[in-house]
Input
Amino acid sequence: MREFYPFQQEVYTLSAQAEQLCKDAFARMDEIALYNEAKVLKAFADNGVSETHFAGTTGYGYDDRGRDVLDMVYAQAFGAEDALVRHNFVSGTHALATAIGGILRPGDTLLSISGSPYDTMEEVIGIRNGKTGNISNGSLVDFGVKYEQIDLLEDSTPDYAQIKEKAPHATVAYIQRSRGYSMRKSLTVETIGKMAKAAKEANPNIIVFVDNCYGEFVDFKEPTEVGADLMAGSLIKNPGGAIARTGGYIAGRKDLVELCAYRLTSVGLGKEIGCTLGQNEAMFMGLFFAPSVVVSAVKTSIFASALYSLMGYETSPHYSEPRSDIIMAISLGSEEKMCAFCQGIQKGAPVDSYVMPEPSEMAGYESKVIMAAGAFHNGSSIELSADGPIREPYAVWMQGGITYNTGKIGAMLAANELLKLQK
Output
């Protein structure tokens, strides 16, 4: 790499040490990749995927076999009864909002049992007003849905006593798998299963819904295989495999997916309409590559955790800890270091590597945010990126890396920029 990137010698030395520390964690991720690749391959075979399913439709999209088979493949791969996979989900937040908007009714209670939701979901729910300050903005609260929250305990474990106490009065138990812009640990699939069990023991009719963003194919199972009734995510994160150009998915119980489809299109039409405009092939191919790409991203995260730990920074999760998503948080301690880190990550991007990230206002976020992202698909989180709000504890959240080697180079470039500040 010396021929292409002028790393300081200390970066080379620390990187070699970091890779040695990661060997056991890398081996485990290779096992997970093999299992999930086999699972996805079998789903393709069992549902008879053929070249004819890649053809696009226009207009209403009636009888789009590719669209319908893609739903079936996703459902099988995720251990769910049904799935709704569409290119016209504009983001993960859109998929999540469609899901909870589809299954909740006025007077129902949405109970978050994993603490505060991700920043962009606060306005969707109605627990934070938008920049206009308009209360009647179409949020769930605006439509008469009640919201309650159970915070995680100090060690990031669920408060099972509170779950059992509050679940009987709730309609939906909301679980956010990933950490969002917080320093809490991401929830493992095993833990999500225990949370779902606790909620259903207290209220057999409760619907357990999981925000699965950043978590797909990081473990052997998905939330819908351990008790979740419904989950949703983005195709420009894990399941799109860096190939899907846009989109999102909802998967789970068939009756609930139907309600979500009514919310996305129209009551009575649901999944029967929606042209695919030539997007099917990329969505099929993205899912096929996803388990391998996700493991490359996780390996990048593990390596970075080891590297920055050696540099004296607090990282979460630690490189030796089991993973439940592709994200790794680094506490840098100052805005200056956040900017240096993100500028280093940007230098390792294949697209827009010359751009200099700076903090700015962003729709849906309360604080200024700095983002490093040079991706083939705008906003793609499975491609190497890093971002964070400019506020305490001045941490950045790094994710992605569609190949391990390029992800490693990006992490090393960020380390190089941080070391420059110390000179």
Remarks:
- The two ends are 23 Å apart (CA to CA).
- The first helix runs from residue 9 to 21.
